[in-house]
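Incident review: delayed structure delivery

Summary: a single-chain prediction request sat in the queue longer than the usual turnaround. Root cause was a stuck worker, restarted by the on-call engineer. No data loss occurred. The affected request and its eventual output are reproduced below so the record is complete for anyone auditing the incident later.

Affected input:
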Amino acid sequence: MSSRSSELTSLRLAWAGLALVGLVVALWRGEALWQGAGGSELVAQATLALWCLIETMLRRNWAALLTLPGLALGIGFALPLYLFIRSRRIT
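Output delivered after worker restart:
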């Protein structure tokens, strides 16, 4: 039943774990919905958003768009989430 496209490798598990840690930290510190985002974090978020949009257009990786709402919780959640999505095999 396991297909290559949904295989959870150790690297994908690491990305998922880091996304979960980023989510917990953002919620615990009350930084959700862009609260406390400094200039550097905003630049990083804009960069990741642009990268996700370009990836979607070039590779038709529609799942990468799930990262965009994740940016509301901070780069610590959105970047590992994006890497988790990106590391799967595109069919």
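Verification: Residues 9-86 form one domain.
Action items: add queue-age alerting; document worker restart procedure.
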